[in-house]
Records
---
Amino acid sequence: MSDQPDHEEHLSPIETARLWMSVPPVSHAAQVLDFDLRNREHLGPWNPPRPTPLDSIEAWQARLLTDRQRAREGTAFHWRLRPKGDRDGPVLGTLSLTRIERGPLERASLGASVDRGQQGLGLVQEAAEALLDHAANVLQLRFVEAGHAPQNLRSASTLRRLGFVPYGYARDYLHVGGRLQDHVLLQYDLRPLRRS
Ligand SMILES: CC(C)(COP(=O)(O)OP(=O)(O)OC[C@H]1O[C@@H](n2cnc3c(N)ncnc32)[C@H](O)[C@@H]1OP(=O)(O)O)[C@@H](O)C(=O)NCCC(=O)NCCS
């Protein structure tokens, strides 16, 4: 499968001190599948239901193609994190900005995950700081929202450390891990990050 004419181009690349992230080419489906399989148990409790199983390279090729279309439209971005200097290397995690809205809201929703063995190194914080800067200055958004299940303490501390501010608590908010779960809702005001 290919999404010619630029199927080998990395979209929306962002570099940090230790990481390089992009919306990858469709040809990177094998590395993304590998991340998914390695982390099924770790991420299962926080994953939304999947309408189609993502168990094969072909399934991930189709999914990456959709990710690339959405990135080009500017409606959602699914970045895959790699070690800096190794653009074809193993996927270490994912960050996403989805449900991007323009007009009066100018907002997006943040999602994040990191390989089970790479937690506790500050990688998501490092990547998310760069991504918030990108959201403010490249995507020209005004705020980013995030949420976490009350028992997801790692996510809670990452979001608080980044500077997200809680604004609500929603019961039975999101279908993740096979059931509806309450969520703490948080917001990050991007305006102080804007350079112009
Ligand atoms: C939530 C999740 C993304 C956090 O990932 P993470 O990489 O551990 O988060 P951070 O980047 O904020 O790292 C924080 C940890 O790194 C440590 N750290 C080490 N070096 C650091 C550095 N240079 N800078 C910052 N923190 C550093 C911090 O002390 C902290 O340790 P602690 O968790 O023991 O307190 C991860 O646990 C995950 O994938 N969970 C499953 C999916 C999930 O819950 N997603 C969110 C759904 S809402």
---
Amino acid sequence: MKYTIIGGGIAGLTTALAFEKKGIDYQVFEKTPALKEVGAGIWLAPNALQVLEILGILEEVKSQGNSIDRITLGKSDLSALSDTPQDKVKDTFGYSTIAIHRAKLQQILFDQIPDHKKSLGKGFQSFEKLSNGKIKITFEDQSTTITDFLIGADGINSKVRQQLFPESQIRFTGQTCWRGVANFELDKAFQHRGMELWGNQIRFGMSRILKGKVYWFAVALDRANQKDDPNMVQEKLLGMYKDFHPLINQIIAATPKDKIMRNDITDLRPMKKWSDGNIGLIGDAGHATTPNMGQGGGQAIEDAYYLGLLTNPSSEEHAFDLFYKKRKKKVQAIVNQSWTTGKVAHWKYGTGFRNFLMKNLPKTFIEKKLMKMYIIEK
Ligand SMILES: Cc1cc2nc3c(=O)[nH]c(=O)nc-3n(C[C@H](O)[C@H](O)[C@H](O)COP(=O)(O)OP(=O)(O)OC[C@H]3O[C@@H](n4cnc5c(N)ncnc54)[C@H](O)[C@@H]3O)c2cc1C
């Protein structure tokens, strides 16, 4: 029985690797013609790292990324509201969080998939359910393929989902995010820290991803679909963050202008189903979340693991229904928590009260919640 995976992002490639290890027949199709050094950084939490360890690529991910041993939520002047050393996480799982360039992660995954099972430059266009139960897929170049099962791993704007569940809805948060990678070396004290600083309806996050490379993100309120003049975006950000600690402006200034990206922050309204018959959705295609908990990619990686675990290579039955049952509670809790966190971070009134709350949240409470989120069933 053959599985066709649409999308060679984190979800699609990790699923391909999980299927490869389990002996499940698959083929993965990615729209972009070549993997490029695009994107910025990504934080991979211990739940994602456990899966990557099971799949045999953890050491490579570690060697191309940077360990985050302390996570700090702070104010614009760099003072901490909450500061959580990751020692307990490390003791439990053997590692904490790894920050890595997205393109590096994607390349590591891509290199694990045999050439004959992956195709670049193949954009999915539509599917058709055939009377014999199989699925005919048509690509943008009008070529076709027949498959037994179809997996949509084509991200938040998934075309597979749009055809399967046309009523699904993307929600805009009212927030926009700029991202970049600065050519900058942080002082020793910051080299293994993940930081997010909350100002007045504006925030900034950063971490080192490699020696001399700092990944950062900047979030502010705005209307949807706004564009920046590429020549002015850096100056605009320098102005927006002028009241933050000078380190922030140094990081923005050390970023190549043409590498600064902008995306509106959106998610997918939680859906009652991620599959219909032999067509299923994984990763952002099924349950995109806002990035406030740094878990979208982690959940895509968990999807790959559990779908691989639940799928029987020799069975004519798919595991999409079991998979939804297994995953929905955790995923939806993350989507909801992340949405709320994003709103709190940009509260207009009561910033002092918000900061007081964040400062006084019991550490054990936060730690307990995180540890629970990091658990993978083996
Ligand atoms: C600002 C920001 C910061 C984030 N930070 C983190 C973080 O620190 N940690 C974390 O875990 N998560 C983070 N996330 C979330 C994470 O990026 C996503 O959840 C993750 O990329 C989802 O992976 P995916 O493979 O499902 O989708 P995507 O990464 O979107 O991949 C989809 C793939 O499908 C391809 N595709 C699209 N359409 C087609 C088509 N028609 N045919 C064929 N292929 C197609 C695309 O080219 C792409 O390669 C962040 C997200 C944002 C926006």
